[in-house]
Amino acid sequence: MLVSPQQMLDAEADWMNAHGNAGTLMEKAGLGISRAIAGHFPPHLRRGTLVLALGPGNNAGDACVAARPFAAAGWTIRWIAACPERPLSDLTQKNLAALGECAKKLNSAHEPDPDWPRPLVVVDGLLGIGARPPLRGPVAAATQWINHWRTVHNAFTVSIDLPTGLDGTTGEADTHCIVADLTATVCQPKTGLVTDNASPYVGRLEVIPLPELQPAGDTTHQVTTRQMLAAWLPRPAHDQHKSTAGRVLVVAGSPGMTGAAALTAHAALRSGAGLVTIITHPSSIDQVAARCAPEIMVQPFPSDDHIDWKSFDAVALGPGLGANSDTLACNILRQCPLPVVVDADALNALSRLSVAERSPLLDQPAGPRILTPHPGEFRRLANDLTGTRAERARAFTERHPGSVLLLKGQRTLTGSQDGPLLANPTGHAGMATAGMGDTLTGICAAFAARGLAPAISAAAAAWIHGRAAEIASFLGPRHTAVDSLTASDVIDHIGSALDDLRTL
Ligand SMILES: NC(=O)C1=CN([C@@H]2O[C@H](COP(=O)(O)OP(=O)(O)OC[C@H]3O[C@@H](n4cnc5c(N)ncnc54)[C@H](O)[C@@H]3O)[C@@H](O)[C@H]2O)[C@@H](O)CC1
Ligand SMILES: Nc1ncnc2c1ncn2[C@@H]1O[C@H](COP(=O)(O)OP(=O)(O)O)[C@@H](O)[C@H]1O
Q1: Start and end of every YjeF C-terminal domain (predicted)?
Q2: Alpha carbon of 353 to ligand 1 centroid (Å)
Q3: Cα separation of 82 and 54, whole Å?
């Protein structure tokens, strides 16, 4: 559910009227924020430096609570009062004191101390949901040094509830709005966080559960959470075998794009599929097979276009298929009774059909369909739709009620006729690289083959895909800069993302 800042403030006021003490809520929220930071930097694994930028409100208290497990694990803790003319709130002072001697005050924040251990994490506890841009005075100065540290000193920035300078309702941002690598939003995500305006500022989004508060809000638009996913993704049954674990058919690859077929198939294999078979252009078979692990079967397109659907549970259709396979792609879409994840050149084939030919394939398909366009492919499929990404996604699923839409991008959206619009919170900008969509298609097809409903397969795949990218970049044994991530790195960490999800 999305809530406006006002709805959240109302829920907080109700709780305060009934219980009169914000301390217990701060304790829970702060420890949840701490766990979210630990999802990138487990405090016992790498001992770095945590800098707390404290404002006059209770976000600053949350930041101090969040720092406690890091202090206990031996991190260097520094804090700075961003508005020296205003006192820190009573709860902030109490939780700052609880950090003990290891939390030292900074009088200015021109540059980070070169002797501080890395990683360097800065927590933006400046302003909360009660504030709105424009930024003024010392807070505006604080957001500028935090953004400078991020750009020049590779600081990882964590915002509590919303990046300071972002309007929680509209997502409009002040010029000096914090660019948050992680936004830990308490209780429910605020409407502004998932708007198109907010995408340069919000980064990874983590919703910190706080069931004590019960705000009203918009249930038709949600952020996918770990709690939802854990209920959706079953562990394998003791008595399953490879033919019941999910059989994926990958229809992909062509001369020059054999890697797309291999990436899709490997992602499906790592996402729990029991059997993975690629069918590809006869001229590419040897190259595709050479790229694949021995577990993956590789066969040529059948000469008569006949595929025995009983041998499979789901299909991944389109990655690297090239522009000469429109007939094959459209025939599969006409005939296949199984869930089909429709990507890349299969989407382009659909775009090239007339509306009269395309509509029945999307509105009354022969089986479940999950369409996974990136924004370029989406424009080709529905170039008449206008409005925000969310509005266009909704309009598309209303127009084509028989298909699930997985609209990729920085905040990937899953839309379906009868479910809420789901915004994906995981992932980072290092995912903007070749083959990443092919990987997502493989994960999604494996989940559909394992029996998950189409919309759930799509939303779960987007979450796992993004989380695998985070683990590869921040936690994996060979973690490196975000911008050196490859699609193959993501595939290598799908298993860690599944594990991570199950160790809530
Ligand atoms: N190793 C391989 O074999 C690879 C094969 N690939 C295949 O190459 C084929 C062509 O796919 P491409 O997606 O590269 O080409 P497309 O022509 O479908 O898409 C590129 C166009 O879409 C726009 N676009 C893409 N992402 C966008 C975004 N986030 N926002 C706005 N616009 C965006 C670009 O500006 C560009 O105009 C597909 O079959 C694909 O599966 C690619 O996945 C790359 C790797
Ligand atoms: N800036 C970003 N932040 C988070 N995820 C991103 C970002 N850019 C791209 N992605 C993700 O990476 C994938 C790219 O898919 P796509 O463009 O189809 O790649 P390809 O066609 O090369 O396989 C999508 O899942 C998308 O959501």
Answers
A1: 225-501
A2: 20
A3: 6
Binding residue ranges for AMP: 408-412, 437
Distance 409 CA to ligand 1 centre (A): 12
Q: What's the 318 CA to ligand 1 centre distance in angstroms?
A: 12
Q: Ligand 1, from 350, 374, 407, 428: best to mutate by most atoms within 8 Å of Cβ?
A: 374
Q: What is the CATH number that goes with domain 5-218? A: 3.40.50.10260
Tell me which fold the domain 231-502 belongs to. UDP-N-acetylmuramoyl-L-alanine:D-glutamate ligase (3.40.1190)
292 backbone dihedrals φ, ψ, rounded to 5° = -100, 150
Tally of CB atoms within 10 A around 21 = 10
> How many Å apart are CA 326 and CA 329, to the nearest integer?
5
Contact between 58 and 90 under an 8 Å Cβ cutoff? The reply is no
Do 5-218 and 231-502 show the same overall fold? Answer: no
pLDDT in tens, the chain (504 residues): 999 999 999 999 999 999 988 899 999 999 999 999 999 999 999 899 999 999 999 999 999 999 999 999 999 999 999 998 899 999 999 999 999 999 999 988 889 999 999 999 999 999 999 889 999 999 999 999 999 999 999 999 999 999 999 999 999 999 999 999 999 999 999 999 999 999 999 999 999 999 999 999 999 999 999 989 988 888 899 999 999 999 999 999 999 999 999 999 999 999 999 999 999 999 999 999 999 999 999 999 988 878 999 999 999 999 999 999 999 999 999 999 999 999 999 999 999 999 999 999 999 999 999 999 999 999 999 999 999 999 999 999 999 999 999 999 999 999 999 999 999 999 999 999 999 999 999 999 999 999 999 999 999 999 999 999 999 999 988 888 999 999 999 999 999 999 999 886
DSSP reduced 3-state for 154 = coil
This complex has an ipTM of 0.89
Q: Where are the domains of the chain?
A: 5-218, 231-502
Q: How far apart are CA 105 and CA 111, in angstroms?
A: 14
Pocket of ligand 2 (CB under 6 A): 344, 374, 408-410, 412, 427-429, 431-432, 434-438, 440, 465
* 324, 326, 377: residue to mutate for ligand 1 pocket, most atoms within 8 A of CB: 377
